Amino acid sequence: MRHKTSFADKLFVFSNYTFFVLLGILTIFPFLNLLAKSLSSEAAVISGQVHIIPVDLQFGTYKYVLQDRMFANAFKNSVIVTVCGTALSLFMTSLTAYPLSKPRLRGRKFFILIFVFTMLFSGGLIPTYLLIRNLHLINTLPVLFLPAMVSVFNMLVIKNYFEGLPDALEESAKMDGASNFRILFQIFLPLSLPVLATIALFYAVAFWNDYFMSMIYINSPELKPLQLYLKELLASANNVFLQLDKIDVDRAMNVSPQAIQAASIMVATVPILLVYPFLQKYFVKGVLLGSVKG
Asked: What value does the mean pLDDT take over residues 287-291?
């Protein structure tokens, strides 16, 4: 017999849909506003006519942002840092989480305590800089991902996920003579795609959006990542009309600092947004399964 939906249930469903639709509109409005500003003329942006629809459509701001060869170089550096950093971080985090997920590991609680301690306390900026300098990592791309290869939070999420996998899988593999490395890479990791995809997204977003590390450790213009390049571009956006060596006079007269800022934010945001749809199906499942145990 089909269950009859009550008025209260219908009202609850309607309220949920209404709430989430409004929330979605509020969330996407700033994004649409930035897009509209980046595509609108200088006069329209300065006069405050632009909301979510471009006024006097133009692409001069994107030409300004994209035409400099330093932008292409910075984009390449960010891609290298994000791809290498995410891959190495995922590898090292999984390698750390696997033994810590095993109660038979001697000193397991002590090691976990040490890792958790680093979440609360650090050596500080100056000692860290001195260590990086002594390791000869200043002005190198690896300095942007090596110091942050293992996030303790991400490691604990993967560890909790590993603890939720059946012990019988490991026992049967050991009976067949499999080593710990083989168990990890051929059994545990293939079964952990949801949490691995989630953590990969966390790492990728962190590496892509980070500019503080590069601001401290990178001095060479050729090694600047995209975020640092955009930061400097935003800082000099008010002098756009003086930078006529980059764009011609006609286009300069139709570009506003606000439009350049909006276009720069869009350029920095869109690439990482394109990654999310491919990992979305794993995202919620990975976080929930990795946070069941304490």
From this structure: 51
